[in-house]
Amino acid sequence: MSEVPEKDDDVVLAGEYALGLLSAAEAAAFEARLGAEPELRALYAQWAEDFAVLAEDIPEEAPPARVKAALDRRLFAGERPARRGLFERFGLAGLAAAALVAGLFFVVDVPGTGVQPPENPVYHADLRASGEEDIILAAGYDATTQEMYVERRGMQDRPGRDIEMWLIAGDNPPVSLGVLPENERLRLPMTQEQIAVLQGATLAISDEPEGGSPTGAPTGDILATGPLEDV
Fold first, then answer.
1. Among 89-98, 139-148, 191-200, which is the least confidently predicted range?
2. Is residue 67 predicted with pLDDT exceeding 60?
3. Contact in structure between 164 and 218 (CB atoms under 8 Å)
C-alpha cells in the first residue's frame, strides 16, 4: 500500500514548486496532482501570494548572468532542474497572477460538456468590462491541441443577440474566433495564421446579431478586452 502524503509535506512541496526547486520529475508529479486536488491548489496559491507580497516594494532588477550561474552551481550542484519553476519564470511579483492562472486552469471537467482546460496553457487572457474588476471571460491557448480554451463567467446574451470573440494582432483588423455559447466552457480550433500572431495579441468580445457579425468585423458594442500574456 502506497503512503499518503501528510498535509505538512504538501505544504513544503507546494512552496518548493512555487520557488522552482523541484526536479523535472517532481514538478511533473506535482502538476499532475494539482489537476485533481483542490486542497493542493489552495496551498500553492497561498505560497504564491505570500511570495508576491515579499516583493511588493522591491523594484525589479535582473542580476548579472554570472551571479545567476554561480547560484545555480551552488544550489543545484551543477544539476539544474530541467523545468523552470514559477519563481524563475515570473519573479516574485508575478507569482500572485500565476496562482490565479492555476486556479482557473487546474479544474475538473465541466458537467455536461466534457471540456477540460489546458494543463499548461502557453498564453492566457482575462477579459473585464471597462471599469469593472470582475473577470467576465477567461481564455487560454493549448499548444498541444492548438485550441483556445474559453470560459464565460456570468455573461448573459441579450434576446436575439450573440457574443462573438475576436483576435486582434497589432494594427491588423479583428479576426473572428467564433460565437460563444451562453454560460459554457468550450474550445475553439485555431488556424496556423492565428497561432502565429498570438504573442502580444489581444482578445475581445462584442455583442452581435444572432449567429454573429454579418460583416466579418465587430458591429456591436465591445463588451471586454484583454491582452494575451505568456504563462
1. 89-98
2. no
3. yes
pLDDT at residue 2 is higher than 60: no
Helix axes 24-34, 38-54, angle to 10 degrees: 120
Phi, psi at residue 141, to the nearest 5°? -90, 125
pTM over 0.70: no
- What are the tens digits of pLDDT across the range 74-85? 555 544 444 444
Report the share of the chain in percent with pLDDT over 70: 70
Reading the block at residue 15, the C-alpha cell is 512552496
Instruction: Tell me the sheet residues that pair with 137.
Output: 127, 152
C-alpha cell at 231: 504563462
User: 82 or 30, which is more confident?
Assistant: 30
Cα separation of the two ends of the chain: 37
Domains in the chain, ordered, with CATH? Answer: 7-105 (no CATH), 123-230 (2.60.40)
Give CA separation, 155 vs 112, 134, 161, 190, 194, in Å: 19, 11, 12, 23, 25
- Cα distances (Å, whole numbers) of residue 110 to 36, 107, 189: 13, 8, 19
Pull the grid cell for residue 82: 530541467
- Report the C-alpha gap between 91 and 32 in whole angstroms: 23
In this structure, are residues 175 and 194 in contact, taking their beta carbons and an 8 Å threshold?
A: yes
Chain-centre distance of CA 159, in angstroms? 31
Alpha-helical segments (H) within 1-134: 7-19, 24-34, 38-54, 65-76, 86-90, 95-105
Residue 85 is predicted with a pLDDT of 46
